[in-house]
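Field: COMPLEX_INPUT
Field: COMPONENT_COUNT = two
Field: RESIDUE_TOTAL = 560
Field: MODE = joint
Values follow.
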Amino acid sequence: MKESETNKQSKKSTNAFNRRDFIKMGAAVTAVGAASVAAAKSKAIEKIVEDNKNANINIKSVDDVFEFDENYKPFNQKDNIFMATITGRLPELQKKMMGFHGPGDIDPDTPGMGRLDYALKEGAYAGVEYMAPGTPASIPNTGVNSWKQKTKEDKHHPFDYQYLFEDQYKFENKNESTNAIKKAAKLYGADLVGIARRDPRFDYGKFIDPLHKKEFGWEEFPFEPKSVIVMAFEMDYEAYSTAPTYVSEGGTGDAYSRITKTTHQLAVFLRILGYKAVASCNDTGLNVPYAISAGLGEGSRMGLLITPKYGPRIRIGKVYTEFDFCNYDNPIEFGVTQFCEKCKKCADACPANAISRDEKRSFYPTHGNKNKFFNNAGVKKWYLDAEKCFGYWMQINAGCGACISACPYNKPDFWHHRLVDRLTAATPGPMHDVMREMDDIFGYGNTHDGEAVEKFWANKDE
Amino acid sequence: MDIFKGVEIMFFWLGVLSTLAVVIMVHLHKVYGLNWKTWITSGFGAFFFVFCVAWSVSSVLEGEPQAAALGLVFFGSPAIVLFLITRRMILKKSNKNS
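Field: COMPLEX_OUTPUT
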């Protein structure tokens, strides 16, 4: 009896892991697991990306990321493809443009181009077309994007308090003001916010208003802007998976409507603080360089901004203001240029063959229309053949967006894509070829995909 | 319970799976006395298995079934291979001991 007890005790003491140890270990691992769940929910990854403190995101100065040729001049708004077409400087495109965006080309037999899809698109654009007509096509000083700084005397009705206050609110420090502006922008609907110094190189040199047939310059702007608050707005992933269709354009139009609402609200916020402000969508200045300058992302082969969180699947809005007591953001780099040099997936997907296939960026365009006025030459980038691109829009009677849909950076906001993005940024060039192939193999980036349209309409939003 | 679905539930089950993997490995160590090589193969196998589940479920949740299927192939296969190697090493050791 005594011997058997001794045996039992010795067995217990020699067991490295007994039942109690198992329970202890299980509890410890469960605690770690629970902490992981909490961490995932706390959007820690999102914060890291947004704070730009990630090891793979390098912070640069504006002069580091933009390289200008000595001949570079601020781009004139009348030279962009929309205005050039509207004003008849590209007569072939202008002829095709008649009826563009209208119901004339509804085609029930083509997936994504039927009546239902058309209604989706028009509903999406309804906000911007009501609030600031023409601003997606770069027309400035229209609707709520008016340059006029409403004063107390201009009140619409007795309870209209949304005018420029005479006295200016003083923030205690720049952190407080920066936080307040970004907080307000996010509350109003911006997905990403950054603040850039106003840079005349990024502004349109001259303006044109084809609706009122007049040309004008910065002398009509109501104040000397010092800062530009730049905001990015996500476009729906499922809608963009159908590109190019009316459904994907619904994603575009909805973003424009949200931009118009949000930028107007932020401009009112600043005016009530006593600072002059003008809301802007695609007008007044160039969105992509301002967004780069405000640290929202990097430029790409297709000419669009690539953000760390949403890739190119965003639209950009901005607010010009005289307010300058704030911390300005700096441009970031997370490997997009190096990846674009190898990838070229957008160029392969472009139905108009408008995207450059040159490996390196250049100061001047190399495409067939390189001598045309719409190129904004003199800055180092990949040059898009805007006439070919816009010509395709006219052909299908809708905005395209195939390049956005095809881009490997266009992914839903899931943890595994952020992980791949970081691996891509941390790995050298040859790995980028592998990453691009893997993107294809895993089935991402399809365009002209009829099934995606069915999926968009079939999926229940619960 | 709308706040606790999709990716949140996935992370919860990943926690359960990770715990089970650790418990099984400790149990195997207790019964067979794993050496450092077996710890490594079983540890990496468990990692690939959990990663495979995480990737594939996430791909289904984002509506990309092809990515989910390829995730099973790319990350599930190494897990199976590593588990088989672990099993072989354990059996070899137990045969030697017997």
